[in-house]
Amino acid sequence: MKNTDILFCRKALVNRLSETSAYYLLHPSNETERPQTSFLSSLFVDVNLIEITQQKTIFLHSNLDELSVLPLQSNIHMVVFLEAKMLTDHHLDELCELRLQGYQLGIIDPQPDMLSIDLFNVFSYVMLSLDQINLETTIARIEHPFLSSKTIWVDAIERSEQFDQLRQASPDGLFSGNFIHKTTSIKGKRILAHKMILIDLLAALNNSESSPRVLATYIERDPTLTYRIIKLTQSVLYRSQFNVTNAQRAIEIIGIRDLIKWVGVAMLSSVSGKPDCLFSMAVSRACFCQNLSAALFPKLEGAFLVGLFSYLPSFLDEELPLLLKDLPLEQHIKSALLEYKGNLGGVLKIVEEYEAGRWEKIPFDRLETKGISQQTLKDLYIESLDNAKQIGNL
Question: For this UniProt entry, which residues form the secretion signal (predicted)?
Fold first, then answer.
């Protein structure tokens, strides 16, 4: 892989209150045994990390060879994680020198009783991964005296029940994994207010005779939704010079064509009880889908909505087939969401693989025929993070 073709994606780490506290930057050499001869140097040269990580702490997986040639980044708070299995007391002097230079160091999946106290004291952070050790062993390690003064990061958490146990064991810890966007099962049938507004609004939008006044009546059923739609008119996207006081006037400024896109964004941002990073993840995916679709299929519409609605289960706690059953969406959008069919389905699949760091599953040979290189895809991803940040500020 060329130096200019270094791929990466970011993963959110949350605290016990489900607030975003840091970002882990995942890259291909995390998943291989190849030495990282160019990743960090390329990353710091080519990418504005402060913008991408929104001035939060950056976690990186690296090795001693890479760190020995990398100048310290004094403008960002960075923690570099090293694998415990690659370290011995022979590395102690080198690690101490890195600490003296100002590096913050973390250690990955250590077995405390297998390391000397001097070696362990070099590290301020400890990462434990549930895909390497089970929950019970993880909690036991958290309680080990060697870890009492460390910041604990537990990765690969799959279920909310695991998260509940871990944040009790480590109240000041950090947590990451698929649990952030997994649905929470709700016993008993219930009517979701946001879902009903979406159904009614989509039905009205599919009716060519619907006026802004009619559409406004559905939006105004939710005061928070109404506020966010009105606020949108004052953004740089529309630059309204009018004092907008109601949903109807906001719709006239935004335009009916873009309405469902922004209602979807405003609706998801209004759902309470979810990690704050979830909204950013959903909007980032929507922007990534839109940017990639525009590059591959300039006349194709619906990519933003496909990306955004792929997160509906995470917000509304129902399976996607059930959520889409009653939504009067166009069939090609439903097919993309449920079966990855059509051009939109292909775009969504590539975006999801990229976000998960499964770059080996991305058909780069076919993308090359469309003029999309690894560098182009990385640039589109970075652009989507910037787009999402702007939308999040609305």
Answer: none
